[in-house]
Design goal:
Strand order of the largest sheet of chain A: 10-9-11-8-7-12-13
CATH topology of the largest domain in chain A: Aldehyde Dehydrogenase, Chain A, domain 1
Oligomer: homodimer
Strand content of chain A: 15-25%
Number of strands of chain A: 16
Largest sheet of chain A: 7 strands, parallel
Number of domains of chain A: 2
Radius of gyration of chain A: 24 Å
Helix content of chain A: 40-55%
Chain lengths: 418, 418
Amino acid sequence: MSVEKMIKEIAKDAREAACKLRSIDTQKKNSALEILAEKLLQEKDRIAKENAKDLSTAEKKGLSPAMIDRLTLDENAIQSMARGLGEIVSLPDPVGKTTGMWKRPNGMEVGRVRIPLGVIGFIYESRPNVTVDAASLCLKSGNSVILKGGSEAINSNMALAGIINSALHEAGLPGKAVQVIPTTDREAVTILLSLGEDVDIIIPRGGEGLIRFVTENSQIPVLKHYKGVCHVYVDEFADLEMAYTICFNAKVQRPGVCNAMETLLVHRSVAGEFLPKMAEQLQKAGVELRGCSETVSRVSGVKAAEESDWPAEFLDLVLAVKVVSDMDEALVHIEKYGSNHTEAIVTRDYNRARRFIAEVDSSAVIVNASTRFNDGNQLGLGAEIGINTSKLHAFGPMGLEELTTTKFVVFGNGQLRS
Amino acid sequence: MSVEKMIKEIAKDAREAACKLRSIDTQKKNSALEILAEKLLQEKDRIAKENAKDLSTAEKKGLSPAMIDRLTLDENAIQSMARGLGEIVSLPDPVGKTTGMWKRPNGMEVGRVRIPLGVIGFIYESRPNVTVDAASLCLKSGNSVILKGGSEAINSNMALAGIINSALHEAGLPGKAVQVIPTTDREAVTILLSLGEDVDIIIPRGGEGLIRFVTENSQIPVLKHYKGVCHVYVDEFADLEMAYTICFNAKVQRPGVCNAMETLLVHRSVAGEFLPKMAEQLQKAGVELRGCSETVSRVSGVKAAEESDWPAEFLDLVLAVKVVSDMDEALVHIEKYGSNHTEAIVTRDYNRARRFIAEVDSSAVIVNASTRFNDGNQLGLGAEIGINTSKLHAFGPMGLEELTTTKFVVFGNGQLRS
């Protein structure tokens, strides 16, 4: 069968499964997830065997130890997937939730009720555990999902797909609710991105290259973020002790993720006191600083920042630092170089906090806490399938509710339009 | 200046205006709308003069009387625009509304606050009054808007744009918040649809041809519906007296709109009693019936329906009629031929009503009322900019809230991620 025919069939099957999933109740969906968790633990040897094939190819290809680590499905990784499933079982089912109901002057009751989006295309790289995470979030929110993982994880992903499939059958759910595309052919992605009739939404997760490829080639709406160029602005009224800990946490706690701080903005009136001490802490932790001319003159060991450092997502122990003469300059800098992802202010001033929240156009705007909190789990959504920095549908982390939409329901007793 | 350069400049200006609009308060926006209402009435002669140019071209081109009627901006039409502005002033401002707020175990408060989408591209046909409607809805929801109307209304639209512009200036709002593309060049649309950096969302309103052209050529997400193939299902447990009035209203009250009934589905067990009487009423009102074989055999004067009649949006006094053997058959028919727009059931049975609501995948699912109620005004949204039958962002009529999104705000006191 040609790749095109195969992907079209997968999409048609996904649409059919989505119709059935619409009216399946929570218990059945939870039961499928519980069965899946059990099966993953039972089948850990089979998973390990298939995973070993991917690991051996990866070693031959000379993938980095970090990449190989992310690819590995050892017992720990499998237990962690099973625990993740348990957490999703415990989350409330968004489907069927009435988000509002009101009565019209003519006596009709009008409500809005959450329903699944339909069919989700999920395109991702290396980590095979994402296969189970994404499948379980889509299933719990009543959507069917087509998963396209990285070629380096194909054997692991196919093994997981088989286990997911048998769990769906055992729970009495349509097996085609979760499908893994069984090929490493890149054409499969391009074809999937053209099937707007059968696929409602595309969620890509991975590096900026993948995301740009998907966005440029998709005829289906894409929920995604390209990068997180997150700023912390240390205001002239900041509690400097708090500012040290927040900035250190935002940069150092996990530098390789999208909600880590990439640029530090410091109000001139506190720069003299704050910057040298902050720089020392960061440099001790191995952070390379690239500063504006004022930063360079105030702190030793700082490289002069180039223009390309301001919009950069370093994803590493590198930080751009700029002294600003007032809050306006900080806001203008964020507007120009930011990525609408996450911005934080450290201040004790009530009006500065209010203004920062009102004017910064980011999916999360944070007062006096680390940027690292922009995450579905940390914000209280329970789990996330990704972060969206386009304004459409859901701005910011997307949890179960964000994988649904609402329809209007109307209860009348014979009302006519005049 | 080339069309491309012009449209790019318009989009850049719209983005800049959108930044300013983000933190402008309700009073100022309302004041701009009130000033605009006054100005429209004051400038009615100038509007009429420009409108006369469009009308004279339309007559020369031989446009239909209905089209010319829609193009006409007489005193009535202008007063109606001014009244519409008053209604939008009276609606609550969605921007800044907190849709939820909760406390995390670490003491952080997390909330979601409504913010504007940003820049909206609105592409529409003939009616120039839509220029004022769309501009006022976008402005009230804090968005800037780029309007591209039909070539037949260009003089009227430019006159309205001038008046809107001077109202914005008088109210102290950025003049570029509302821009009308000052050309009838079709290339302008294609260019606008490519400017994803500066335009956040495209809303087309018009015939299916326009909508398909926009969707196929847009690199920006499009909120739209192609057509409304709305069904009424008269169940075996229907109150038949109610069913006559609902079906008559859904078909006849205004047949040329997207929420009018296009297909009537009747349960076999009531078809013998219901169909002949219903058909007589509809035929008396000039409705042409196209029926399944059973309908043809039960009712006189019914044409046999062809396959192409089932997915058809007639927008006219034409109705497809099918007898179904049970509710399952009705649901399968709707799933196959429906447009996810509006579906209604007439029944006295509690379980049938519940099941119809759960299983029908339409933006409005209605029990015992006319399909004609799927409209932002009628459902209580206050006003609508259009109806969306894609699941993304907002399914169904889009009012002021649907022209916004939410961002997360976080209030901490030094929280760090561990």
